[in-house]
């Protein structure tokens, strides 16, 4: 069997598209309730054709390929899905002529960036996240961050309690070193905001 080259692997193709008001990141999970008829059809198609479709934040072009990790079909036709984010893509063209939206996409390769910067930012973000969780009172909940900088950057992004547009911005950053540095800055800001709030209450 011929192995696909890197260029072919990232070429992409046409996939079903599910626009949401929330975000799915690579290497993270998301529960979704599907009740609209077009997206029920999308899920039914995906269950018969590889269990994958694209998830995008509405009106944005960078999204994440979702794999259906588990599902339940309710008696009235609705679906409850457990999605696993796999890889990023960019929408290059859209088609709304069928029963559900589809798009031609280009898959985006993942880069660590500068390894030394990624490792330093990874350590900083891990320490800041632990500090923030301690301040929020959820430090006792178990959390193991992946060693891989790319996977770690997405898991930290999923844990940040920030607005969706800012989180989308993290998804769109090209390399893990830059994403982790951006997350460290956000974590510092969140810690500072919590400290200020507490000082005002004293």
Number of domains: 2
Structural class: alpha+beta
Placed side by side, the strands forming the largest sheet appear as: 1-3-4-5-6
Span between termini: 68 Å
Question: Can you name the CATH architecture of the largest domain?
Answer: Roll
Question: Segments where pLDDT lies below 50 for 5+ residues?
Answer: 1-9
What is the helix/strand order? Answer: HEEHEEEEHHHH
User: C-alpha Rg, in Å?
Assistant: 19 Å
Mean pLDDT across the residues is 90
- CATH superfamily heading of the largest domain: LON domain-like
The residue fraction in helices comes out at 40-55%
Report the principal-axis shape: globular
Can you describe what's shown?
This protein is 42% helix and 27% strand. It has 6 helices and 6 strands; from the N terminus they run αββαββββαααα. By secondary structure, the protein is of the alpha+beta class. Helix 3 runs parallel beside helix 4, helix 3 runs parallel beside helix 6 and helix 4 (149-159) packs parallel to helix 6. A hairpin with a 4-residue loop joins strand 3 (52-57) and strand 4. Strands 1-3-4-5-6 form a 5-stranded mixed β-barrel. The protein is globular, with a radius of gyration of 19 Å. The chain has 2 domains: 6-107, Archaeosine Trna-guanine Transglycosylase, Chain: A, domain 4; 115-201, Methane Monooxygenase Hydroxylase, Chain G, domain 1 (Up-down Bundle). The chain starts with 5 loop residues before the first helix and ends with a helix. It has helices at 6-9, 37-48, 115-136, 149-159, 164-172, 176-201, and strands at residues 13-20, 29-34, 52-57, 62-73, 79-95, 102-107.
